[in-house]
Every structure is written in structure tokens, then in C-alpha cells.
Design brief:
Phosphorylase Kinase, domain 1, Transferase(Phosphotransferase), domain 1, five-stranded antiparallel beta sheet, alpha+beta, three-stranded antiparallel beta sheet
């Protein structure tokens, strides 16, 4: 009985406070006599934009004739429906217009209803729209990642960027005394694309840098040592990551390996504690670049033919499209010059620096252009590149541009040949500054149509005379009239045969 009494008292106590709360709320809504409200009607009841009421201040907005209209007025107690309750027209969910009621002086003046304020229905739709947008974004990212993963698997020879281990495994054990050349012959299985990634990384981590042998816009070139062998280490700056990746990718193209293409060994990245070094490791040639060689030495006609034929052979291999399961796409160099050609110990040459190279996609008849911002060397640019008339969507124009550059390299080499060789000079040395601007080259090559001068002494030498004819057919203004790399190779081979040059490349 005592417990029942306590429960009853507790219930009555709670109901008492609930009734007090309801009354307090009603008092707040209770109409006030002499309430001043803002009004905007043109009537006697609204002098000076103010009216008085014993009911409520009222405001509403509606859209008519494409414009937003506002109404401000007083609502008297006699007009309230239902009586003693919150007016029905003040219930926004029941009224067709946006309304506002209040019971303090001039309180309705603060009412503003934005034209573009979303309705309740809009707010219900927004979460669905956002959800669908997120779902679509996730699906697009998933498709992109799946496509990228397939491409990476197809290009299993790409270098690694991060520290994860490669999944490639060699089919043959690596002997402790094997040289780099032995390892390449053991592990490539005739693909001609260099070492597997795992072997690349193991070699790169065992190389000791000896001395710097060159600098360029990409970074530095060092001579390194691995098991007593010399290797060249091209170290890219971190901002040239795209160039490093692209060059390593091109070098590892299937069937690219050739005696007149710089031999690729490995690509790796190393963290020295301050920044990440991007390494590209290739064969080392102690004679350096053709530019360095010609600057310091002169050559005889046999060496001229050997150098010219080896460069043409390498270029023809680049330009060649090898069809087959393990075929090679045609590749154009785009930056052929004497500084990007290296001289081997037997004085034949190899073509290097493939960072700007483009590949031909035969299936889609498209050109795979690198995403780097680098452009070729202005002094060696073909006329159609200088005046921007080259059709960059087709592959053949890139090959013809290479042939033009080869003609200039041939001229540089021939100048240093003969009984009375000329001092070394770069192409167009006599008509443009030492560091020519694009406009300088465009004026000389495209407007004035100038070409390097052919000395009179060449005409009395059968080899130099024949070579001069080849170079002139390489730098025609009309790209379609230029020789192909294969035709150049055959012509130079005929010259070598006629002169009985011993070619051991």
C-alpha cells in the first residue's frame, strides 16, 4: 500500500510539471494587447508602416510573375483560427506560402525568405544525389586502378619506384663470378629487353660511384664500378622523375637491344637520407660522347664511314617495326645529336638518351608520346618542328625529323675528317648564337632556308663527296623527300664496301 501511494504521488508530481511547461509555452504564444507590427500595405490601418493589434505580427512570402513578393501585416485576436490556438496560417507545413508569426513588437520585420531556399523535398533528395556521386567516383577509381594494374602486368619490365620487392624471378642461377653481359645473356631469354627487375635492383645496390663524367639538364652522369667492371650511372634529379621513368621504360622495350643502341643494365631508386636518387645504369664507354670525341680528335675516312654507318644502323633499328608475339614497336628518338651518341672503344657508335623517344602503336595507329615537358635541342630541330607544321598525330613525321638531325650529325663528323680537317663547330655556328633561341633557329632554317656549309675540299675527296650527298638528302625542307634511315644505312654500307672499310662494330 505504501509503495502504491509513492508511485501515485510521483506520477502526479510529474504531471504537475508537464502542465506548468505547457502553460509557460502558451503564455509565450499568448497574444499581446497593443502589439506593434511592421506592415507594408497602403491602407489607413498601416500609417508609417506600423500597425497595432491584440493578436499576432504576421509575415509571408510568395512568388508571382517570376518575382518574390513579401506581405507584412497585423492579425487581430478575432481572426485567429482555431480560437486560443496557434493560427493555422502560421503552420508552414499546412500553408501554401512561406509564413511567419510572432508576438513581440515589430518582430515580423526580421522575416526574410531566400528565393533559392530549398524545400523539404529538396533536402530529402540531396543525400541521395551525394550518395550516387560518391558511388560513381569510387567505381571510376576502381576501373582506373584495374586498368593501370593490367598495364603494369603487361609491361612487366618497368622499373620499380618504391621499396617493394619485385615478383620477377630468374630462370637460371646467377653465378658468383658472372659479368653483367653474362647475366643479360642468361636472364633475358632472347627478349632483348635487359635484366629482370630483381636482378636490376641487386646490381644497382652493389655499385660504387667513382667519378662524375658529365652533367645535363636531367642531372649527372657518373662512372661506377660493379665487380671490377665500369658502368655509367645517370642520376636524375627528383623533379625529373617522369623523364627517368620514361627512359627506363623505352630501354626495356622488347627486342630493343642492339649493338648500336646504348646497352641498358638497370633502373633503381635510392634514398640517401636527404632526397631520393633516381638511377639509370647503362654500359660505360670511355671515349665519351661523339661531341667530346670530335672536339678533341680528328678522324680518317675509314673512321668517318664506320661512325656514320653505325649511327645509321642504330637509327634504322629504332625506326624498325618488328612484327610478332615478341615484336618491337617502331621508335623515334626526337633528340638525336652528337652529345647523345657515344663512341665505343672500336670507334663505332651507339645511340643513347631515349628519354624523349616516342613509340608507334600499330594496332591503334597512334603515337605514344611521353608526358614530360622536355623538348628536343633547338639547334637540331627539323624545319617542320620549328615552325610547328608537323603532324604530331602520325608517326612517320617523327622519323623524318630524326633523319634531318642525323644529317647535321653527319656534317659535324665529316668536318673533322681528312688531311686538312676543320676545327669542330656545331651546326649553324655561323648564323645563330651559341645558345640560340627558337626564333633564331626558325629564322635561319625555315625563313632563310639555310643549311650547314659544305667545304670545297670535300668535292675532291670521293668519300667526303659521297657523304655530303647523303647529308643533303637528309635535310631537305620537304620531309617527304628525305631518305629513310634504312636507305641511309644501305647507302653508307655501299660506300664502305667501295672503300673496303673493315667494319667491326
Amino acid at each position: 500500500m505504501h509503495l502504491y501511494k509513492n508511485v501515485l504521488m510521483d506520477t502526479l508530481y510529474r504531471r504537475k510539471w508537464f502542465i506548468i511547461f505547457i502553460l509557460s509555452v502558451y503564455r509565450r504564444l499568448d497574444p499581446v494587447e497593443g502589439l506593434k507590427c511592421y506592415c507594408n500595405s497602403q491602407s489607413e490601418s498601416c500609417p508609417n508602416e506600423t500597425c497595432e493589434t491584440d493578436g499576432f505580427c504576421f509575415a509571408s512570402t510568395s512568388r508571382r510573375d517570376g518575382r518574390q513578393h513579401y506581405t507584412f501585416q497585423c492579425w487581430g485576436r478575432s481572426s485567429v483560427f482555431p480560437p486560443g490556438d496557434w493560427p493555422i496560417w502560421c503552420r508552414a507545413h499546412e500553408a501554401p506560402e512561406q509564413v511567419f508569426c510572432c508576438a513581440t513588437d515589430l518582430c515580423n520585420r526580421a522575416f526574410v525568405a531566400p528565393e533559392s531556399s530549398p524545400s523539404a523535398g529538396t533536402w530529402h533528395v540531396i543525400p541521395w544525389v551525394m550518395g550516387l556521386a560518391v558511388l560513381f567516383t569510387c567505381a571510376a577509381l576502381s576501373l582506373w586502378w584495374a586498368k593501370r594494374s593490367r598495364n603494369l602486368m603487361k609491361r612487366g619490365s618497368r622499373p620499380l619506384f618504391s621499396g617493394e620487392d619485385s615478383m620477377c624471378e630468374t630462370r637460371h642461377p646467377i653465378m658468383g663470378t658472372a659479368t653483367i653481359r653474362d647475366m643479360i645473356e642468361l636472364t633475358t631469354s632472347g627478349s632483348g629487353s635487359g635484366l629482370p627487375l630483381l636482378v636490376q635492383r641487386s646490381i644497382a645496390r652493389q655499385i660504387q660511384l667513382a667519378d662524375i663524367i658529365g652533367k645535363g639538364r636531367f642531372g649527372e652522369v657518373w662512372r661506377g664500378r660493379w665487380r671490377g667492371e665500369n658502368v655509367a650511372v645517370k642520376i636524375f634529379s627528383s623533379r625529373e622523375e617522369c623523364s627517368w621513368f620514361r627512359e627506363a621504360e623505352i630501354y626495356q622495350t622488347v627486342m630493343l637491344r642492339h649493338e648500336n643502341i646504348l646497352g641498358f643494365i638497370a633502373a633503381d631508386n635510392k634514398d640517401n637520407g636527404t632526397w631520393t636518387q633516381l638511377w639509370l645504369i647503362t654500359d660505360y664507354h670511355e671515349n665519351g660522347s661523339l661531341f667530346d670525341f670530335l672536339t678533341a680528335r680528328t678522324i680518317d675516312t675509314n673512321t668517318l664511314i664506320k661512325m656514320a654507318l653505325s649511327i645509321a644502323t642504330g637509327l634504322a633499328h629504332l625506326h624498325m617495326d618488328i612484327v610478332g608475339t615478341k615484336g618491337k614497336p617502331a621508335i623515334a628518338h626526337r633528340d638525336l645529336k652528337s652529345k647523345n651518341i657515344l663512341v665505343k672503344s672500336n670507334l663505332s657508335c651507339v645511340i643513347g638518351d631515349l628519354g624523349l623517344a616516342v613509340r608507334h602503336n600499330v594496332a591503334a595507329d597512334a603515337v605514344d608520346v611521353p608526358s614530360t615537358n622536355r623538348v628536343g635541342t633547338k639547334r637540331y630541330m627539323a624545319p617542320e618542328v620549328l615552325d610547328e607544321t608537323m603532324d604530331t598525330r602520325q608517326f612517320d613525321p617523327y622519323k623524318r625529323s630524326d633523319v634531318y638531325s642525323f644529317g647535321l650529325v653527319l656534317w659535324e663528323t665529316a668536318r673533322r675528317c681528312g688531311a686538312l680537317p676543320d676545327e669542330y663547330q656545331p651546326p649553324y655556328y655561323d648564323c645563330v648564337p651559341s645558345d640560340p633561341a627558337l626564333e633564331d633557329m626558325r629564322r635561319a632554317v625555315c625563313v632563310e632556308r639555310r643549311r650547314p656549309n659544305v667545304p670545297n675540299r670535300w668535292h675532291s675527296d670521293p668519300v667526303l663527296s659521297a657523304i655530303s650527298k647523303v647529308m643533303k638528302e637528309c635535310w631537305y625542307q620537304n620531309p617527304a623527300a628525305r631518305l629513310t634511315a634504312l636507305r641511309i644505312k644501305k647507302t653508307l654500307a655501299n660506300i664502305a664496301e667501295g672503300e673496303q672499310v673493315v667494319l667491326k662494330m
